[in-house]
Amino acid sequence: MPSIYKLTSQYGRCWRLLLLALAVTVSLSAQAANLPLAVSATAHSTNAKTTADVTITGRVTDATTNEALAGCSVVLKGTQRGTTTDADGQYRITIPNANNAVLVFGFIGFVSQEVAVSNRTAINVALSSSASELSQVVVIGYGSTTKKDMTGSIKSVKSTDFNRGIINSPEQLIQGKVAGVNVTSASGEPGSSQTITIRGPGGVRTGSTPLFVLDGLPLDNSSTGGVTNPLTFLNPQDIESIDVLKDASATAIYGARGANGVVLITTKKGKSGSASLTLSSSLGISKMARPLPVFTADEFREQVKALGGVLDDKGGSTDWQKEISQTAYTQNHNLSFSGGSDKLTYYGSVGVQNQQGVLKNSQLDRYTGRINATQRMLDDRLTLDVNLNASYTNNQRPPGNSAGSGVTTIGGAISANPTFPAYDSAGDPFQYQGATNPLITLKLEKDITTTNRIVANISPSYKILKNLVYKLNFGIDNSSAVRDQQSLANAVPQQDGRLLSTYTTNRNVLVENYFTYTLTKTNHNLTALLGHSYQNFFVQERNWSINKFPITPVEPIYNPGLGQELTLANNRPTGFALKNELQSFFGRVNYQFNDKYLVTATVRADGSSKFGANNKYGVFPSFSAGWRLSEESFLKSGPFTDLKLRAGWGQTGNQEIPAKITQALFTAQVSNTTSYPLDGSTSYPAGISYTRLANPDIQWEVSSQTDLGLDFAVFKGALSGSVDYFRKVSNKILLEVIPADPVQPASTYWTNVPNMSITNQGLELDLNYRYASLSGFRFDIGGNITFIDNVVRNSPYSVITSGSAQGSGLTSATVNGYINGQPIGTFFLKEFTGFDEKGISTYRDADGDGIVTDKDRIAAGSALPTKQFNINSTLAYKGFDLAINFNGVSGNKIYDNTANASFYKLRLSKGLNSTPEAIQYAQESINNSAPVSTRYLKSGSFFRLNNLALGYNLNPKSIGINRWLNGIRISVTAQNLFVITKYDGYDPEVNTDRAVNGISSFGIDYLSYPKARSVIFGLNLTF
Fold first, then answer.
1. Does residue 339 contact residue 457 with C-beta atoms inside 8 Å?
2. Which residues contact 307 (CB under 8 A, 6 or more apart)?
3. Which of the four pLDDT bands, split at 50, 70 and 90, describes residue 347?
4. How far, in Å, CA of 423 to CA of 1023, rounded?
5. Which of 7, 173, 393, 913 could connect to 162 by a Cys-Cys bridge, CB 3.0–4.6 Å?
6. Residue-level pLDDT at 620
7. What string of H, E and C letters represents the secondary structure of 123-165?
8. 688 three-class SS
9. Using CA atoms, how far apart are residues 258 and 245, in angstroms rounded to an integer?
10. How far is Cα 392 from Cα 946, in angstroms, rounded to an integer?
11. Helix, strand, or coil (residue 582)
């Protein structure tokens, strides 16, 4: 094991290992399939033609629509010789012994067909759809099932249905695709975090992030270093499908970490009988979508004078937002290859993405490599699956409140005086004494994070008996990151140089063993699962800093030794390390009777090192059932292709408390707070004392969920959909509280708050319609809408505050509050009522005591949307296809902390730029302050055209290059074309993390990175 960790800690060795694996796999696969290394997808390249060889050609189509099926596999039965159809459904294969030959035609979603050749040289085949996708395979955790046999609330999104455009992480691929799932970009920054909520948040500290499982390996949601999304390491083009487990009957198999839902990510695998090589490239062009409407230079002059302020006019006319932004370019290049034989299949890829942000000095570079292989042996009794992903990311961020200056790029740009020139006569950024030039900030500040990450697992399975299979899953996820935050020394404006470096290691090791037993009788089908899981997490962070670098061409990052101040007062090294373990025992039984009555029962017992000895283990059961009414005799002749009732109940858990918090903590520090002078003097003797008492009784937070669902399909599957009612109640809420006993060594302690609960309940509607004509025109339209309510009950506190505000005069103010009878994410604010006769803000005296204080804060709405709606449509004709995706939310609010901190009369009168929002009230005094209140609470509803993609599949035969190419696809995608909203910030889809003491915040916008509007041109070649 140590040798593996040593390899994973060094980037150069990682890539050498990956390249070696790729080379060996390709070589072995070629030998297994009797293919030369320079393989093409057509069968005539597999072997030299003999005198008995016969070339067969033909076309494969959809039996219903007569539309060509591109990528259909055509394999000579009993051999590894095969090919795939081109964009027009045409194929060509050379085979021996044509008299006895049989060709096997297979395509996902269609019934496979075997055709005897019988001396024919032209064979056309029409494949039939497989029962309106009811036989579609859905991953459910530790196994799979078909869509028709599901009893839980699960949604599977295949790669063909993913969102398109500039994609950095898996959440963006399914935004708007799944009812009950709300994906929100924290900002428009490349690689920024994505907030994903499945059926609402259920905890005070847990946020809403679901458990992500990559090819059977549960990932750790903690940071891998820096502030980028931990899932950015994954190349979206390697993903085959994403399955979302929404209700407890589906997620309970993952027990403790399934409270917020589970997202199963399955990467692409090779297919036997055919080899393919795909090259894809794209170029994206992005610009800031919605700049803030700050005053122009002329407007600024007019407004400052009108307010009687002091105007410092230097005669310029500068659009500072334009100066700090750029036309951003994104390059994305991917090479993938796959294929294999009956015994060995493989898939490999190498990807490069270089993405510029719309702000200068903002870029994300990602380099990925993946190899997946499956080997069968011992008469197919032993199957070995191997998945290996290596990635390197380099993320450069524009200046923020970190390295030294404390001035953000955006904050400086929206407030800078527009009459100041941006550049001097020499073309350098103008240097102002006592004023801010955002271009100087961009020049002096740097924030770079580099991350190496390897995620790998090996999963051998052995068929012990005909119906009994044992499987081992061993996985490791190892990342190491370095974040350098640098401030260069400068004379005008004056600042000292500084370097802060942070090193982060995150390691996650998984070992699972489980048995699967299947029993099939005439009317009975039983699948039983029994297993054990052990997972070990280790996170370590270390940082150090050094100050007072001289003004020199050498950057501190490259020579920290130039720093002149290294004191414990200002540069004390800090860090932490934590280790957590999770051991689980789990089981599941699926039973079907007569293909009509379906039952699933699951139980998982999780033990966590985070809890004390008294409650280390939690048991999480679930039960669900389904009734396929469409299979009943009284509905057999009806219009329903599928009609199924579902019902489920289950429990899941949460362990999100600090590590070792249940154990006693001691200190040997000698001070007047940790020691006691026994002689009555001021001499404090050395000794050991309690800092925290042991807490062995704290236990798991538990979420119980009920789901009632109906799945249906009519008109031969053309119209299908589902309806789900859900109710999720979280109790035994984990919270840090003030102890009732005043004789305590610590001011707070962790406990399960008795009777406190958080409830999410709602209704999900999902509807899809598909139409295909005999002329080849295809039209699909689908959509979903979610109605959801969230409420906090029986909290022992009148309010639990969170959401710290930022800005001058706003220090220590909070925006969010957890309040009984209100949703999570509630804004707890004083209610703005206007101005008095002096032009000073007034607020409602809610408690009627005659004075306005913090006691008059009210619940003023929530950041959580009460409705989520999405529309998706695809049109296709001949080689053309057009995909359109809309998404939106309503019922939610946003606190505009940016406006609160920057856009009011007092700042404008002092020569700082603003927007018309600052002067909307003529009666307001320029001496009026702007405390936190409902004045800056705004509607967060929006409706967005998320992406629109037009593609054309060009038949290589039509331009005479089908000998070398199987397919050519040209595409253009527009992303974030428009958004309809009343919100006047950069974008309504925002969530700046302003948590207080770990209490989650929601719906706050503070100097958020602007969203981009992008156009992407793509080219895909299949060989």
1. no
2. 905, 908, 909, 919, 926
3. very high
4. 52
5. 173
6. 93
7. CCEEECECHHHCCCEEECCCCEEEHHHCCCCEEEEEHHHCCCC
8. coil
9. 9
10. 28
11. strand
Sheet holding 90-95, edge to edge: 90-95, 54-62, 125-127
Interval 361-419: pLDDT, tens:
999 999 999 999 999 999 889 999 999 999 999 999 998 743 333 458 899 999 999 99
Beta bridge partner(s), residue 279:
335, 1021
Reported pTM: 0.85
Summarised one tens digit per residue, pLDDT across range 557-604 is 999 999 888 888 788 899 999 999 999 999 999 999 988 999 999 999
Which of 261, 208, 203 has the alpha carbon at shortest distance from 818?
203
Nearest Cα to Cα of residue 393 among 166, 159, 557, 169: 169
Residue among 826, 838, 772, 835 at smallest CA distance from 801: 826
Query: Where are the strands (E) in 238-325, listed by range?
Result: 239-245, 262-267, 276-288
CB 901 within 8 A of CB 810: yes
**DSSP notation for 168-191:** -SHHHHTTTTSTTEEEEES-SSTT
Compute and round to an integer the Cα radius of gyration of the chain: 31
Q: Is 2 helix (H, G, I), strand (E, B) or coil?
A: helix
Q: Of 339, 366, 369, nearest to 352 (Cα)?
A: 366
Q: Measured on CA atoms in the order 658, 662, 663, 666, is the torsion positive or negative?
A: positive
Q: Based on DSSP, count helices (H) and strands (E) in the chain, helices before strands.
A: 11, 49
Phi, psi of 636 (to 5 degrees): -60, -35
Residues paired with residue 78 on neighbouring β-strands, in sequence order: none
pLDDT tens-place string over residues 424-464: 888 888 887 777 789 998 999 999 999 999 999 999 999 99
Q: Say if residue 628 is exposed, middle or buried (CB neighbours under 10 Å; 0-12, 13-18, 19+).
A: buried
Tokens of 651: 């429990």
Contact of 420 with 432, CB cutoff 8 Å = yes
Candidate from 45-54, 614-623, 828-837 with smallest mean pLDDT: 45-54
Beta bridge partners of 102: 116
At 141, give phi and psi (nearest 5°): 95, 115
